[in-house]
Amino acid sequence: MPVLLATLALGLAAPDLIHGERVVTADDYPSRMTQALQSAMVNMEVVVNPAGLTESCRMIGFVRGPGFAEKTPAALTCALIKRRARFEPARDAEGQPVYGVYRTWISYTIDNLTNAKSPDQVDLDVYVARLPAGIADRARVAVAQFVAADGTPGACVAAPRTQPLATEILSPPLARAACKTLAGSGKLAVVTNKVGVPVATTRRLVARFIVGQSPAPAKPATP
């Protein structure tokens, strides 16, 4: 499927969390974790329905702290997200609400729950011979990618954050290159709703641009 130009996909948007500071607060830190000097950072993936509500939630990554047991913060965070989180729903290229995928890092730390530095989120690496003047190697660019129910990539546009990350830049040429790479990557992960039916989604994906040649795929081990 061809990549749609930004002028043809102005309505396209990934889901956006409303009042994220209210979803998980310092008061939610489990007292037993505080007493044991435990800490954790969990990467949560939320499927958001067209009404802006949580359809499903799961942990897709974590950073282990002293004495950390990942089941506690994962279950706690999903429960809080399901109970408190409200989203601006994802939208397709025509601006109609659709299912979306939202990902975020949540920090449970002793010193400060909200200001801990989260690991970078990178979904694909794009190798190039050179980058535009003024753009550093390993620059990151975010795009909103529409994905059909069967995983086929569709419309794709730049997706700046409301509060930009220091590691992400807004570059239309690199966003177009990221969209072209996604369009040629074949099927993307299929997302299902709560009853297991595959659904079309709009997702925010981050591309990292690396100057150099793509590494050759590893050769299978010789028996």
What does the model show?
This is TonB C-terminal domain-containing protein. The chain has 223 residues and is an alpha+beta fold. Helices cover 14% and strands 34% of the residues. It is built from three helices and twelve strands. It has helices at residues 31-35, 71-84, 172-183, and strands at 16-18, 40-48, 54-64, 86-88, 90-91, 97-108, 124-128, 139-147, 153-158, 191-192, 198-199, 201-211. Strands 2, 3, 5, 6, 7, 8, 9 and 12 form an eight-stranded mixed beta sheet that branches. Strand 5 and strand 6 (97-108) form a beta hairpin. The radius of gyration is 19 Å and the shape is globular.
Write a brief structural summary.
This is TonB C-terminal domain-containing protein. 14% of the residues lie in helices and 34% in strands. The protein has 3 helices and 12 strands.
Number of strands: 12
Radius of gyration: 19 Å
Strand percentage: 25-35%
- Count up the helices: 3
Uncertain parts: 1-8
- Average pLDDT, rounded to a whole number, is 84
The helix/strand order is EHEEHEEEEEEHEEE
Silhouette: globular
Alpha-beta classification: alpha+beta
Assign a percent range to the helix content. 10-25%
Our measurement of the CA-to-CA distance between the termini, rounded to an integer number of angstroms, reads: 40 Å
Sheet having the most strands: 8 strands, mixed
Organism: Novosphingobium capsulatum
Protein name: TonB C-terminal domain-containing protein
